[in-house]
Amino acid sequence: MEDQKIKKRNLLFFPLGTVGRDMMYNLVTSYLLTFVLFTRELDAKQLAAITAIMVGARVFDALNDPIMGNIIENTRTKWGKFKPWLAIGILTTSVVIWAAFNTRLQGWPFVWFFGLIYFLYSITYTMHDISYWGMVPALSSDANTRNQYTSRATLFAGIGGMMAAAFIPMLTAGGNAIGGNAVTAYGRVALIIAILGPAFLAFTIFGVKEQRNYNDEPRPPVSFKKIISTITGNDQLLWIALIFLLQQIGNGIVLSGVGQTYIYVEFGYEGGLFTIFQMLGMLVTGFLMIFYPALSRKHSRKALMNVLMAVSAVGYVLMLFPGLLLKAGAAALAGMDLKFLLITLGYMLANFGQYGFYLIMMISIMNTVEYNELNHGTRDEGIVSSLRPFLTKMASALTVAIANMTYIAFDIITYTNGIASLEQDAAAGRITAEAKGAEIDTLLQGVRSGQSMGLLIVMTVLPCVLMFASYVLYKRKYKLDEGEYERICKELEARKAK
Q1: Model's pTM, two decimal places?
Q2: In sequence order, what are the beta bridge partners of 337?
Q3: What is the C-alpha to C-alpha distance for residues 254 and 349, in angstroms, rounded to an integer?
């Protein structure tokens, strides 16, 4: 009875804790580059430097994340090995996020400041991200229960992401921008999210009870050799890492800034439009967030992937061809631009399939813990779990690189610099918000069809190709399906019973 009470409490407080964390993650991953583009005047060299910083920070995470995972494995306190790092990580991340969006620096001074802040964010976010997801194997070893924790956590993460997606564009661009300009708006939004992050994670820190069998085990040494041997000694972990990286790059391209910039140059600089596009695209994933545990009991992961791949492919086609063939404003349906509606519908389908892949990848990574225990005698949850956030952040850095190369290749920075200059003038009170909006509309009329089409192709064709590559590799190389995982768990139980 007590175990059931703990399970019910954990199933509420564990997922609730990630709402604010994912608002933070969404703010940095989806809007930091947009903040830079539309509030800072940068030449191609400065934008390239920011790209190098973001990629370099993620390479740094190649060492930072597994080391953090190993440090967590080595932690022994009366609060457990996860909760101290949850608390330290979320509080320091809040400070870093506030600082990132509340500076008035420009040019190269801003680039240097950005480098410092971005590396600090990599370190602080890693502390609580690895700790959070690393708790899942410690909450239960039952496959169905673990699916429940994972799906509920991703549901609440999605809620946090959707809240950010709903309000950040609307409150930072166009007529509803806080303070009448993006500079002021981003600063205030960042402050609010920096407060909400710790507030929500407090539910997990104070309300969740995990299994602490690790207290009876000797502390593993913090060493590169241990990290490397754990990762390279687990062939299924290596394959799922590559598969997950490809999928996450494809999945993140639209929200890296390319989708938002495309909406602005094609349909107008109004944050509400991108809110509609992004919210509808994310809303459809609610079905999977709620029903994935039930679907996973009736259908194998590989069978589900067949359907998800087909749905996404249809979605990307529906985004691409109306985008190429229809003219914005040429036709309307239910009072809205037909081209915009079709592209949004296509994104809904594409994102549905991508999110289903994400859920499958999350569980597939976690299931390598038992595979590691079977082959090497240790679970190494912290190290295994550290790969997921590392791969996610590496993918986000690569999508930013793709986005920035796209902006430079199609000369989009000419228009973003123009908007940034007008936003600065509005923030300084040199022009009114109304005059700023009118001048931005005039500026965007100069965007050529080839430039907007280039953005569209990058946000449709490339994600579809990367998703298909991850699909093929998963089907051929990942062996820990439901039957094999159950067999491993039974063998481990038999070993412990001896």
Answers
A1: 0.80
A2: 332
A3: 13
